[in-house]
Write a structure and sequence with these properties.
Largest sheet: 6 strands, mixed
Low-confidence stretches: 335-342
Structural class: alpha/beta
Helix content: 25-40%
CATH class of the largest domain: Alpha Beta
Strand content: 15-25%
CATH topology of the largest domain: Rossmann fold
Number of domains: 3
Number of strands: 16
Number of helices: 15
Length: about 475
């Protein structure tokens, strides 16, 4: 039989994976150290157990004690896994920009989570560093591993991650690219690799707004960069720093999932973008290893969500197409092209009976209907809308309303957009809450676009 004594024995020995598609056209060999395959989904599993065992040896953490740590999530996960097996209570303090998935995951391990504001100075009593320090003082038997100053952090990578990479590449690695947060990963791995090959280049990937490469400013990517210099960071190990912005980080992470099948977090996307930047400058024969520190499962509600990317401005243009092109394809029956018997735009007069409007919606299987003032559609003024959800509510409350004019049950009119407007503007309007928008040509309504229409257009683009 083959089995592990505990899940902690599964930490480390992560694979190197060659990147074919995202590195297509580049001369060097680009390899990814996939740390998401650790039990907790990140490279921080390595230091979680190591810091706890070091504290036990030194008598700083005793049976039944409490671990308190400020963390962006991943170190907390590593500590929580080890603590679950060893019987320690955990209290983790996190900045509020972290994903809900990370918070939920810590609680799944039985940990307590305290969330603090991100955009406050480190010395503020509200910062997650200060709150963690206060809780460590106040909770009896509490111990703070303090990954930012604990020498076990970089030493763990010097003993494990560095030797793994050297052995896996047969000593051929020429460039290491890693994100810089606490500095433990890049300092520890870099120190070991430089001991083996002093000419080997260590490149730090850093978010725009981090102290390591520029003026401190807010940034969104999680788990990397700092607003102070941690004791665990050895900048003398780093030969070069490549700055990467939030958009570049998220786009690179999405590419890695869609082109290589590797689901990673934003800090991994940041490291990948920096690695590809470096690799583009190198000749054949170079071997670039990039550290992908964590999984993307913690970010499904963020940058892997198309709507989130659009709403936050990271995708400027979803499509170069115009709204007019959406009207030409399959539709929900609001505009020409669906059926020879379907009008170009289905509307109803505000003075028509509501029962007639309902019959119209049923005939064409539509769930919303623009309301016009006047009998003619051409040049009509749209004064309202009928929408299935609110219409049902009206009828439930007063069944007799079906014998009254449409105006008695109509909602405000739909938003409008010119036919030559880029499709991404239609996306933005519908993501803000509109259920449909009316398309105008020269001021005249010619059709209507719904969320279903846009989904159909994206799923089956027409050339």
């Amino acid at each position: 039989m083959r089995y592990l004594e505990s899940i902690l024995d599964a930490v480390g020995d992560t694979p190197l994976v060659r990147l074919h598609r995202v590195a297509a056209g580049l001369r060097p060999l680009v390899l990814a150290k996939v740390e998401s395959l650790n039990p907790g989904g990140s490279i921080k599993d390595r230091i979680g157990l190591a810091m706890i065992e070091d504290a036990e040896r030194r008598g700083l953490l005793e049976a039944g004690g409490t671990i308190v740590e400020p963390t962006s999530g991943n170190t907390g996960h590593g500590l929580a896994i080890a603590a679950a097996l060893k019987g320690y209570r955990c209290v983790f303090v996190m900045p509020d920009k972290m994903s809900q998935e990370k918070i939920s995951l810590l609680r799944a391990y039985g940990s307590e989570v305290v969330v603090c504001p991100t955009n406050v100075p480190r010395e503020s009593a509200q910062s997650y560093y200060s709150v963690a320090d206060r809780l460590t003082r106040e909770i009896p038997g509490a111990f703070q591993p303090n990954q930012y100053a604990n020498p076990t952090n970089p030493e763990t990578h010097r003993r494990t991650t560095g030797p793994e990479i050297w052995e896996q590449t047969g000593g051929r690695i020429s460039h290491l690219v890693a994100g810089m947060g606490t500095g433990g990963t890049i300092s520890g791995i870099g120190r070991y690799l430089k001991e083996q090959s002093p000419t080997l280049q260590i490149i730090g990937a850093d978010p725009v707004g981090s102290i390591y490469s520029g003026e401190i400013a807010p940034y969104v990517v999680e788990g990397v960069g700092e607003d102070f210099m941690p004791a665990t960071m050895d900048m003398s190990i780093v030969d070069r720093v490549v700055q990467v912005n939030d958009r570049q980080s998220f786009v690179a992470a999405r590419r890695l999932a869609r082109e290589e099948g590797i689901l990673v977090g934003g800090s991994s996307g940041l490291a990948l973008h920096a690695a590809l930047t470096v690799a583009a400058e190198l000749e054949e024969g170079a071997v670039v290893v990039v550290i992908l520190p964590d999984t993307g499962r913690n970010y499904l509600s963020k940058f892997f969500n198309d709507e989130w990317m659009v709403q936050n401005g990271y995708v400027d243009r979803i499509s170069p197409a115009r709204v007019r092109e959406v009207l030409r394809g399959p539709s929900n029956g609001h505009h020409a092209g669906h059926d020879d018997e379907v009008p170009g735009l289905i509307t109803v007069d505000s003075e028509s009976l509501l029962s007639d409007a309902i019959e119209l919606m049923q005939r064409y299987s539509i769930s919303q209907l623009p309301v016009r003032a006047g009998a003619e559609v051409e040049g009509a003024v749209l004064v309202g809308s009928l929408q299935e959800r609110t219409l049902l509510d009206h009828i439930y409350r007063d069944p007799g309303i079906v014998a009254r004019p449409v105006a008695a049950a109509m909602d405000p009119p739909f938003g409008t957009v010119a036919a030559d407007t880029p499709v991404d503007e239609a996306f933005r309007m519908l993501l803000r809450g509109d259920t449909a928008i009316v398309v105008l040509e020269g001021g005249t309504p010619i059709g209507m676009v719904t969320r279903a229409d846009l989904l159909e257009f994206v799923a089956h683009p027409r050339g």
